[in-house]
Structure formats: C-alpha cells, structure tokens
Design brief:
Layout (H helix, E strand, L loop, with lengths): L5 H21 L8 H10 L3 E2 H8 L3 H13 L3 E5 L7 E5 L1 H21 L5 H19 L2
Antiparallel strand pairs: 1-3, 2-3
Length: 141
C-alpha cells in the first residue's frame, strides 16, 4: 500500500464499497437510504418505540421520525400510541413492509456472502473480531 494511513484507507474503502453495493440493491426496492435498517430492526423487533429504533440504529430522533413518516406514506409501517404510555409511539410493519423486509434481509445476506467469498468460516470470524477490536479501540480514545 502506498498510503501513509493504510488502515484508514482500507476502512474507508470497505465502508464506501459496502454502502454503494447496498444502496444499489435497495434502489429497485424503492427504499431511501437507511430504511432498510429500520425494516430489518422491525423484522427482529416489531412494534417497538421510535426511541428504541433511535438507540438500536444509533441515529438521531429526527432521522427516525422523518424515515418513519416516509415509510407510513409508502405503506411499509404503521404507528400507534402505547397503551401503557400515550407519549410513546410504537412502530410496526404492515404486511407489505414485512414482505419488503424479508427481501431486504435476503439482499443483506447475499451481500455478506459476496463480501466474504473465498474466506473460510474461521477467517470470517477473525475478520469480525478484528473489526470489533478496532471499534473498541476507537471508542475508547
């Protein structure tokens, strides 16, 4: 590598390539950036609050609110107030949203398989562990 910062270059290239691949595969599904992550989270935890979406996806509240509003208009999700606490808005998938979420999950699984072509299961695990270690190091600066 000809860079003074090979780790930085490698990480940026990886993130850029992966984001571009996912965005390209999401476009035909009619999704805006980030909506795939919301669909996947709701596929795992349907009927959760917008605040839990904010925390689990590590984005700000206005981003979630805007995305959820767009997704309601598209018929992907619906919202209702919690019966326990009327201040809490719960988000759940519609039938159309659930169908699309399973398509998104398939795209993500295929993308992961393609990203790790030629890697053994052990190498894949080592790669994940190394990235987690780097993330830990950066978060504890």
């Amino acid at each position: 590598m000809n860079s003074k910062f090979p780790i930085e270059v490698a990480i940026i290239n990886l993130i850029t390539s992966y984001k571009n691949l996912i965005a390209t595969k999401m476009r035909p599904l009619g999704l805006h950036p980030g909506q795939d992550m919301i669909l996947l989270e709701l596929l795992k935890n349907d009927g959760i609050s917008q605040n839990k979406l904010v925390v689990s996806l590590c984005v700000d509240h206005s981003t979630i609110a805007k995305s959820v509003s767009r997704m309601i208009k598209s018929g992907l999700v619906q919202t209702k107030k919690s019966t326990k606490d009327k201040r809490v808005t719960l988000v759940s998938l519609t039938e159309h949203g659930r169908d699309l979420a399973t398509q998104v999950e398939d795209v993500w699984l295929e993308s992961e398989r393609n990203a790790t072509l030629g890697f053994s299961a052990e190498e894949q695990q080592l790669f994940v562990e190394m990235l987690e270690h780097i993330t830990h190091n950066l978060n504890n600066q």
